[in-house]
Amino acid sequence: MQIIIRGHHLSITPAIEHSIRSKLQQMTQHLDQINSMQIKLSKDHQIDKRSKKGSANHIAEAIIRLPGIELFAQASADDMYSSIKQMLEKIKRQLQRHRAMQNHYPSLAIE
After folding, report:
1. CB–CB of 33/44 below 8 Å?
2. pLDDT at 24
3. Which neighbouring-strand residues pair with 103?
4. Which residues pair with 7 in a beta bridge?
5. What InterPro entries does the record tag this protein with (predicted)?
6. What pLDDT is stored for residue 45 in this prediction?
């Protein structure tokens, strides 16, 4: 399984990369069908005029490719760790739904 982590307008620290990789490994250890995963972390430099701070300007996106299906999740928050956590929760729900659908309809599962 290939995991690509990219940063847009920010640098990826080893702590962030390790955190993402370990959580994705735990989440997908029972799914051997995953072809690739792409994680994009970005920072929007828009400034809120009232508070002089960026509001929800740290964005985390994930694309997970399985045979015949592609899962996408995006989350934004005031800090990067929160947006990563929200994005991983969304991906986890999608993977659970995908597993349930495969177990419920085994004839529709793509091999």
Report:
1. no
2. 87
3. none
4. 41
5. HPF/YfiA_ribosome-assoc (IPR050574), RHF-like (IPR036567), RHF/RaiA (IPR003489)
6. 73
C-beta separation of 84 from 20 below 8 A: yes
Which residues of the chain are modeled with pLDDT < 70?
A: 46-56, 105-111
Q: What pLDDT is stored for residue 111 in this prediction? A: 46
How far apart CA 73 and CA 46 sit, in angstroms, is: 22
Cα atoms found within 13 Å of the Cα of residue 55, Cβ hemisphere only: 5
Euclidean distance between CA atoms 42 and 6, whole angstroms: 8
Angle at 83 between CA 81 and CA 86, to 5 degrees: 110
Task: List pLDDT tens digits, range 22-32.
Answer: 998 888 777 77
CATH classification code of 2-108: 3.30.160.100
Provide the H-helix boundaries in the chain. Answer: 14-27, 80-104
Of 69, 10, 100, 29, give the one whose Cα is nearest residue 39. 10
CA trace torsion 107, 65, 89, 60 (10° rounding): -160
- Is residue 12 exposed (0-12), middle (13-18) or buried (19+ Cβ within 10 Å)? middle
